[in-house]
Amino acid sequence: MRIAVLGTGMVGQALAGRLDELGHDVAVGTRDPVVTMARTDPDAMGTPAFGEWAAAHPSVRIASMADAVEGTDLVVNATSGAVALAALGEAGADRLAGTVVLDISNPLDFSRGFPPTLFVKDSDSLGEQIQAAFPAAKVVKSLNTLTAALMVNPRQLADGDHSVFVSGNDAEAKALVTDLLRSFGHTDVIDLGDISTCRGTEMLMPLWLRLMGTLGTGMFNIKVVR
């Protein structure tokens, strides 16, 4: 598939690298490719400068948001939740129309420090806001409940015996995302239902963050036993 990954941080790098490894035609979208490639310092999460990653992945194209999504089969929103709507807006509603958008972002609010709160919850979700802002896109929420390394290589933990979720209004879009998740190695993909069900997965983040603090690592996940 032709896939655009929006975002150059830890999640974007993990997704783009794995997709490239699996043989997909991958472009990474960023607001300003020249500025992005010129950075030399790690980001706020300690992720190495994107130029270092790009040098190790020469087959991945770096482009503006709009150019990255042009003519793609799948767009992966790997930006932070605070800028997700703006990033997709730069990509362009017309280019996203009819396209599957895999949204991995979480509505984390760091304005009061760490741990963050959620800037939308209970009666709405970031996934729903993205679908409402881009009604012609086929938004599927997934992979937002685990750390980047496990998103793309779940067999690093318990040989992949843990759960991941999908939410979305379009059955074919969810099937495409589910197939992609299985290609990563996910074996327990649970379809929660329409896009409103991602309220639940987004609201898992306060628990996830506190577990990370207690365990001292992000290398854990939830297993739904039934």
Q: What report would you give on this structure?
A:
The protein is an alpha/beta fold. The chain starts with a strand and ends in an 11-residue tail after the last helix. It has helices at residues 10-21, 33-38, 50-56, 65-69, 84-91, 93-96, 126-133, 148-152, 171-184, 198-202, 205-215; strands at residues 2-6, 25-30, 61-64, 74-77, 100-103, 108-109, 117-118, 138-142, 163-168, 188-193. It has a single domain (2-215), classed as NAD(P)-binding Rossmann-like Domain (Rossmann fold). It is built from eleven helices and ten strands. A hairpin with a 7-residue loop joins β6 and β7.
Question: What layout of secondary structure does this protein have?
Answer:
Layout: E1 2-6, H1 10-21, E2 25-30, H2 33-38, H3 50-56, E3 61-64, H4 65-69, E4 74-77, H5 84-91, H6 93-96, E5 100-103, E6 108-109, E7 117-118, H7 126-133, E8 138-142, H8 148-152, E9 163-168, H9 171-184, E10 188-193, H10 198-202, H11 205-215
Parallel strand pairs: 1-2, 1-4, 2-3, 4-5, 5-8, 9-10
Antiparallel strand pairs: 6-7, 8-9
Please sum up the structure shown.
With 226 residues, this protein is of the alpha/beta class. 38% of the residues lie in helices and 19% in strands.
